[in-house]
Amino acid sequence: MTATRTELVPFDAALETYDPAMGLEVHVELNTASKMFCGCSTVFGAEPNTQVCPTCLGLPGALPVVNGKAVESAIRIGLALNCSIAPWSRFARKNYFYPDMPKNFQTSQYDEPIAYDGWTEVTVETDEGPRVFRIDIERAHMEEDTGKSLHVGGSTGRIHGADHSLVDYNRAGIPLIEVVTKPILGAGKYAPLVARAYVASLRELVKALDVSDARMEQGSMRCDVNLSLAPSGSDVLGTRSETKNVNSLRSVERAVRYEVERHAGILDAGQKVVQETRHWHEDTGVTTSGREKSDAEDYRYFPEPDLVPVAPSDAWVEELRATLPEPPAERRARLQAEWGYSDLEMRDVVGAGAIDLIEATISAGATPTAARKWWLGDLARRANDTATPIDELGVTPTQVAEVQALVDAKRINDKLARQVFDGLVAGEGTPEEIVAARGLEVVSDDGALAAAVDRAIEANPDVADKIRDGKVAAAGALIGAVMKDMRGQADAGRVRELIIEKLS
Amino acid sequence: MSDGISRADVAHLANLARIDLSDAELDRLTPELTVILESVAQVAAIASADVPPTSHAVPLSNVFREDVVTPGLTPEQALAGAPAVEQQRFAVPRILGEDA
């Protein structure tokens, strides 16, 4: 059934002939303490099969009971995505035979999802500047995660060539919310960026709701990318492929790009795209064929007889709506206006993951300009150099505000402030203590400064002459000499004043 | 649904459910299932829009438990009934034609 291998068509060329349509399915593992239908722990990384019980192992006679907190999280995700919340919805059994589910079915939802018909917006940088794309949400439903299989005997740990598989059911039964978009049309060449921006915004959203860790590298947030191409201008959707387990933001963008190029190659060669599941290979940046997609009927969904319906009252839904945080996009716009940052500055702040840190630094007394200067300057560089998340550097927003207060009081200058940050990262105490212990305070004694200025003038007579002739810009060289003489511990503004005084 | 079920449908379902049916069993089950489906169709014909579908024997909803961790099984207990065990995991034959 697999089509003859065809050449990829370069992305830009593919977009001249075809319009991509995307559908994104994102699985979000909830951060509840216990599983969806039993009281087993959900802690990541435990020894195999230490977080299991008769219910999640599917042993005869065990009865599931729904985790109320998981339902609450599902409703809150639905509301944050502007969905309608079903007044009555049921769980369903999705029947399939695969050892990652010991019950031979996965408890999921089928035609009665808890949340449906929503939307969200993402902003993408286009050639014409930032553009807002609306993403319509088909549904968000509750289900349970599967166990983890380890394939042994093969060379790569993948299933092909494996002799047998070893299964750990610690993950089986952890609550999942699957968020499914409607077809995303009209993104054109921005489709890869729109897909990435959507997954990024969903991650930001579930973190803001505090319902998931959303750690893509640990698998607590996973994305499936459906993609099809239709001839430009056509309103008929093409045959889609479903690329599974695309597990980083960068990979989402790359996988969309790759599938566009692959589909275009198939269609240009006059062949038909096969509707199938594909696997994304992070290392090589390509997808390969998995299995052909079975019809929905093949899962023989039917209502789960062991679980009663979930029927959230209006009052409960409204109570949960009241707990929603300010939507991330609105919060960003509000803070940008409050702080007076340009679009470019705000984008850098968001990109550096420093929005919360800057907000807290400003609350602790620093100006928006100062807060941004430190977090995006010296501290972002340290984070980058040491590959440490910026919020784990060991420097708190309060400390940054304290350092800036020392600068404002002219007790240290920016250069010395960096040494204070060295001390903070090394855990040497508070900014005050570090300034005292390292002897960083600037010399404000005019006598000592004046002596240093005299030495600098004497050592640079030609520069001094220029300043006497009115070329004040030349003062920089003398300031530099004085700062060096004072080991950086001088107030550069005061030094400048002294130089001008002496030479005018 | 009221059109009954074909012999091929029954064979397909049996395959999906991993039930090995002989030709004789297919011959017997196809008409039996047809009768069952016809009976269901009669009920479906009587039910009007104002009658909500029944999926449970008890008229309950919103039965939830607290999000509290409770003790489960030890790995030894969990694996006691496994046909084969390796590295504290359930060892199963490799699966053909599908992928994880």
UniProtKB/TrEMBL annotation, chain A:
Q: Which UniProt keywords apply?
A: ATP-binding, Ligase, Nucleotide-binding, Protein biosynthesis, Transferase
Gene Ontology molecular functions? asparaginyl-tRNA synthase (glutamine-hydrolyzing) activity; ATP binding; glutaminyl-tRNA synthase (glutamine-hydrolyzing) activity; transferase activity
Q: Which reaction does it catalyse?
A: L-glutamyl-tRNA(Gln) + L-glutamine + ATP + H2O = L-glutaminyl-tRNA(Gln) + L-glutamate + ADP + phosphate + H(+); L-aspartyl-tRNA(Asn) + L-glutamine + ATP + H2O = L-asparaginyl-tRNA(Asn) + L-glutamate + ADP + phosphate + 2 H(+)
Q: What Gene3D superfamilies does UniProt report for this protein, alphabetically?
A: 1.10.10.410
- For the keyword 4Fe-4S, the answer is no
- Aminoacyl-tRNA synthetase recorded as keyword: no
Looking up SMART domains in the UniProt record yields: GatB_Yqey
Q: Name one Pfam family in it.
A: GatB_N
Do you know which InterPro entries this protein is assigned to? Answer: Asn/Gln-tRNA_amidoTrfase_suB/E, Asn/Gln-tRNA_Trfase_suB/E_cat, Asn/Gln_amidotransferase, Asn/Gln_tRNA_amidoTrase-B-like, GatB, GatB_Yqey_C_2, Gln-tRNA_amidoTrfase_suB_CS, Gln_synth/guanido_kin_cat_dom
Q: Name one GO biological process term.
A: translation
Q: Asn/Gln amidotransferase domain location, by residue?
A: 356-503
Q: What positions belong to coiled-coil segments? A: none
The highest taxon in the source lineage is Bacteria
Its subunit composition reads: Heterotrimer of A, B and C subunits.
Query: Its biological function?
Result: Allows the formation of correctly charged Asn-tRNA(Asn) or Gln-tRNA(Gln) through the transamidation of misacylated Asp-tRNA(Asn) or Glu-tRNA(Gln) in organisms which lack either or both of asparaginyl-tRNA or glutaminyl-tRNA synthetases. The reaction takes place in the presence of glutamine and ATP through an activated phospho-Asp-tRNA(Asn) or phospho-Glu-tRNA(Gln).
Tell me its family: Belongs to the GatB/GatE family. GatB subfamily.
HAMAP family listed in its UniProt record: GatB
What is this protein's record name? Aspartyl/glutamyl-tRNA(Asn/Gln) amidotransferase subunit B
Source species: Mumia zhuanghuii
The gene name on file is gatB
Automatic annotation (TrEMBL), chain B:
- Give the catalysed reaction(s), semicolon-separated: L-aspartyl-tRNA(Asn) + L-glutamine + ATP + H2O = L-asparaginyl-tRNA(Asn) + L-glutamate + ADP + phosphate + 2 H(+); L-glutamyl-tRNA(Gln) + L-glutamine + ATP + H2O = L-glutaminyl-tRNA(Gln) + L-glutamate + ADP + phosphate + H(+)
Q: Name one GO biological process term.
A: glutaminyl-tRNAGln biosynthesis via transamidation
The cross-references to Gene3D superfamilies, in alphabetical order and at most eight, read: Glu-tRNAGln amidotransferase C subunit, N-terminal domain
User: Which superkingdom is the protein from?
Assistant: Bacteria
Q: What class of enzyme is it?
A: ligase
Share what the entry says about its subunit structure, partners included: Heterotrimer of A, B and C subunits.
Family membership noted in the UniProt record: Belongs to the GatC family.
Its recorded name reads Aspartyl/glutamyl-tRNA(Asn/Gln) amidotransferase subunit C
Q: What organism does this protein naturally occur in? A: Mumia zhuanghuii
